[in-house]
Amino acid sequence: MRKGFTRKPQADEPATPRKNYITPAGLQRLRDEHRFLLTRERPAVKDVVAWATSNGDRSENTDYQYGKRRLRQIDGRIRFLTKRIEAAELVDPETPRTGQAATRVLFGAMCAIPMPRERSKW
Predict the structure, then answer these.
(1) 68: Cβ–Cβ under 8 A, 6 or more apart, which residues?
(2) Is residue 67 part of a domain?
């Protein structure tokens, strides 16, 4: 087979190789999902696959096939979440900014925009 037709392996890297700027609430959601997948979802699917394996013929056993597929999806999501959590850089929007950061709008910044009749915070 020619080299052009082979598929290159894809790395399990976050979408951005740089820092993953995230709020504390967002980081907590990632950690909660990671913990849920490891402690509840994966063991439950693993039990279904073990039960389906004990039934015998795996080639026609849809519980086994779908269970294995779901395990691969869960494992991929766990790898993704692990890398995102490791690359996380916390940005707290409630923290007051000083210096040049106080004059610029950055990720997670709260700014007041004067409107003709009202004043709203964005």
Answers:
(1) 49
(2) yes
Which helix or strand (DSSP H or E) is residue 49 part of?
A: helix 42-54
Task: Please write the tens of the pLDDT for every residue from 69-121.
Answer: 999 999 999 999 999 999 998 888 777 777 776 677 766 666 677 777 765 55
What 3-state DSSP class applies to 20?
Answer: strand
Report which of 91, 93, 90, 89 is spatially closest to residue 121, judged by C-alpha positions: 93
Q: Would 6 be classed as within a structural domain?
A: no
2 burial type by CB count under 10 A (0-12 exposed, 13-18 middle, 19+ buried): exposed
DSSP conformation letters of 57-120: -STT-HHHHHHHHHHHHHHHHHHHHHHHHHTEEE--TTSPP-GGGGTS--TT---EEE-SS-EE
Q: Assess if residue 110 is contained within a domain.
A: no
CB 69 within 8 A of CB 81: no
Range of the domain at 77: 16-93
Q: Could you tell me the CATH number of the domain that includes residue 59?
A: 1.10.287.180
